[in-house]
Task: structure prediction
Amino acid sequence: MRNFIGLLGGSFNPAHGGHRSISLFALDTLQLSEIWWIVSPGNPLKSNKDMAQLSYRLASAKAQSRRSRIKVSAIEKQLGTCYTVDTLKYLKRKYPKHNFIWLMGADNLAQFHRWQRWREIAQTLPIAVIERPGYNDHARFSPVMAYFRKFQKTLNHYHYQSNCNTPALTFLRFRPDSRSATDIRSSNPKWFDSNQYHFIRDGLTRKLHTIRTK
Result:
């Protein structure tokens, strides 16, 4: 039985409707069974200056994922992994019966050449890139496309292969959605004060995360 899981990683600082909409789009377009949001403890390429604590970001992701086939996890915190490539290799070993697809926005592909061991990521999982306003041209002409161009695939490759060969990359056309975590933080720096969750059960590890209240 075909069992493809989409993996969407990020700081989710905070998670918002844009994350949800691209995930629901990917679920349908790629015919995925589920999507797992991997909420990272931190981002080596970003400043931690305005990074909310992990439990708040998990809570925002939990709120955005409700009533959907999206699981929310902070498994990288438990693993102690700092780089995506190590997390993906662990997940492949841990869940050998699953076929994973790495999901990323066009903004991330534009800077993918800065990611630790990015070629290993490409060789570990097939990649689906979701278009994002203002970043699509940068993504298509990014330094990594010299490597990926011969590995670009059609959607049929993802739909009908029981286990996609890697490297493999496809672009997914998505209706423009300008929502961003940066804008949310700019308009509401204390966005985490509205948290409605006090305890969060990790969707993968089943660990219970506690929201710290002031």
The chain has a mean pLDDT of 90. The chain has one domain: 4-210.
